[in-house]
Amino acid sequence: MKTIILLTIATVSVLAAADRTITGTITDSMCGKSHAAMKMGSDAECTKACVKAGAKYVLSDGTKTWALSDQKGPEAFAGKRVTVTGAVDEKNGVLQVTKIEVAK
To answer: For the whole prediction, is pTM greater than 0.85?
Structure first.
């Protein structure tokens, strides 16, 4: 029962948050903002390989890294600078993705 209440509170908190737009690079939770140490080719190739190995897609704005709720859509943008729109869970650093597009 306690778990259900906590999940309900967390869901309401996320839904109540206004959407934000954050610009950054789609990368992975293993490498973060730099893929240099991996020496696997392009940032996009490294990001996809790391996700295939178990890492998660994230958005790095150069200062902060945001976990992404959507783990399928970001694949098309791996290694690219994008603008992601969605509700932000500041406490957990999660961006509830509603839209991803190439940054202008």
So the answer is: no
Cβ atoms < 10 Å from Cβ of 46: 24
DSSP assigned state of 32: B
Q: What are residue 42's DSSP bridge partners?
A: none
Q: Output the six-digit token pair for 88.
A: 């932000």
Tokens of 93: 């650093």
Which residues, in sequence order, are bridge partners of residue 84?
A: 22, 100
CATH architecture of 2-102: Beta Barrel (2.40)
- Look up residue 90 and give its amino acid: E
Please say whether the beta carbons of 58 and 65 come within 8 A. yes
pLDDT at residue number 33: 76
Q: Length of the chain in residues, anyone?
A: 104
